[in-house]
Amino acid sequence: MSKTGKNLTDLLDLNRAQIMYYLVKHPGCSRAELGEFTGLSLASITKIIHSLMECGAIYETGFSEGKKGRRSVGLSFNYKKYKILAVRLSWSRLEIQPYDFLGNTYGKLISIPFLNVTIDTMKHIIQATADGIKSFCAEFPEIAAIGMAIPGPCYRDTGTLLLPPYNIDPAKRHYYPLKKILAEHTQLPIFIEHESNVGALGYWWFESHNEKDAVIMNILSEDGVGIGLVDNGKIFTGIGNCSWELGHISIDYNGRTCPSCGGRGCINAYCSMRALEQITKELLPEHPDSILQSYSNFSCQTIFQAAKQQDPFASNLVFECGKHLGHGILSLLHIFNPDIIVISGMISLGDDLLMNGIQDVLTKGRSAYTIIPKIKLLPIDTELTMLGAATFAIDRMLNAPTQYLSLPTNN
């Protein structure tokens, strides 16, 4: 049974969290604005601000015009004092780079490709991650935490990753204690979450602008298809500890076998980049005039490029991929009602052809009461998942600032 009572130290941290959160998002705000946002008295705010300024977490920015023409002293979070190390582990690549609390990157991105993630390759991946952490922490000693995005299935509370090959027998599955093993290589707090969830959070935090109460759905398609949901800045997780696996919703029960879960007709079986490459290989012999015939090996990027060159076969593949994704979105809209759907990852290279396929299905298949939200393709260079990994750590730290930002505990 979890404890529900709050001691004075808990209440102090809760009030600090509200103030720090607002200051990070609103540099230069006044004490009066903080009072209006938090509901705290001016005396309480003054005491908390004093302790935060003493330890260098915030600072005064000078005078600014307040309401009714009154001058007030602005306050700001000390963005130079803290950085986050973002780490992304996908099924084919490891990426590491520092971020600040404004979403800016620092240093040179570490990007290490590999063929797959299995129990046999994890030792190499852990070592590469540990080396990256050590290198960046030496270069940027202000790094205060690690935010890590991982694929699913994963278990967020323990930072455990379920490794392939998957087995229907739980006793034969590989549950890899990723967070526990990484913690042996660093003293920094590590925050791990599913890659599509952190992408949705990163978009809400840095890209939604005036839509701060918005419900954001992030559809991430690269090695697999992941779908994350953020409601008013909170990752929607349900009651379970395991990550969402909405990419495995079936859109055709007699359809293709999903190489990941073994089910039939998953969104993942049609719209992941590995699936797109496999479908292309299967159908290519029927299209001798396609540009793709000139490649002995090709990737999803090659397919998208051929579509941009108006190759009929490649164009149809991308359009059909969009249609399958459209069917998945249509199913999801009967469960969730997001304000905006963000499509991120390699699939965004499909551009207008992909969107045309999505819109074709949504237009023809919507019910009388279905609300179609805004759908946005994010450019591949947005690096939403890495930004999201950093954002997730920022969010966790600001929820417990005394612990993670090294603040005094007695005032």
Automatic annotation (TrEMBL):
PROSITE patterns per UniProt: 4FE4S_FER_2
One record GO biological process: D-xylose metabolic process
Domain 4Fe-4S ferredoxin-type positions: 247-282
CDD domains with a match to the protein in the record: HTH_ARSR
Top-level taxonomic group: Bacteria
Keyword line: Carbohydrate metabolism, Kinase, Transferase, Xylose metabolism
GO molecular function: kinase activity
PANTHER family given in the database record: BIFUNCTIONAL UDP-N-ACETYLGLUCOSAMINE 2-EPIMERASE_N-ACETYLMANNOSAMINE KINASE, ROK (REPRESSOR, ORF, KINASE) FAMILY
Family: Belongs to the ROK (NagC/XylR) family.
Protein name: Sugar kinase of the NBD/HSP70 family, may contain an N-terminal HTH domain
